[in-house]
Amino acid sequence: MTTSACGCGGLHTDPRLPELEAVLSEFKGNRGALIQVLHKVQSIFGYLSDEVQERVAEALDVPLSEVYGVATFYSLFSLKPQGQYKIGVCLGTACYVRGAQQVLNEIEKQLGIKLNDTSDDGKFTLEVTRCIGACGLAPVMTINEDVYGRVEVGTIAEILKKY
Ligand code: FES
User: Domain residues of the chain, as ranges?
Assistant: First the structure.
């Protein structure tokens, strides 16, 4: 999470502010560029905070509700800071029939978070993925670039411990 020098957690002293302003001035008033702008802004901050969404709405002259609607509709956008490690549990058909839901439930339980949440220590973000083409190893989970196959509920603690 970003903290500013004054301690208010606001954007006005965030070192990335000039980058944000550059994007917003490039697309000022350009309502049709909303998705493109959100994409660029997310790449600056890693996620779309409430304050950032307000700035985008203001600059592009679109209602905040529309910005929020787009940000929540597309899974590529995140409204929360992302963890250092992104866990992806494949819920494709092959993984699903081989127990991916139980794997997901167990990770939620062990980390004390729900799907699309980030653990309090900022370490893990839990997401669902579609088939990653490793169906022969179902059920499959990924942690950043690492792929784990034939995951069993009993081995999850051991896997998580590595990170
Ligand atoms: S369904 Fe999970 S890897 Fe294909």
Answer: 17-73, 85-161
From CA 21, how far away is CA 5, in angstroms rounded? Answer: 19
CA angle 75, 108, 104 (to 5 degrees): 70
- Cα(8) to ligand 1 centroid in Å equals 44
User: 83: exposed, middle or buried (C-beta count within 10 Å: 0-12, 13-18, 19+)?
Assistant: buried
Q: pLDDT-derived band of residue 2, with 50, 70 and 90 as boundaries?
A: very low
CATH number 1.10.10 is the correct assignment for the domain at 17-73: yes
Q: How far away, in angstroms, is 105 Cα from ligand 1 center?
A: 17
Matching CATH topology for 17-73 and 85-161?
no
**Ligand 1 probe mutation, 103, 128, 129, 135, most atoms within 8 A of CB:** 135
Helix (H) or strand (E) holding 147: strand 146-148
Beta-bridge mates of residue 142: 88, 147
pLDDT in tens, 49-70: 999 999 999 999 999 999 999 9
Tell me if 128 sits within 8 A of 104, measured CB to CB. yes
CATH number among 3.40.1190.10, 2.30.29.30, 3.40.30.10, 3.40.640.10, domain 85-161: 3.40.30.10
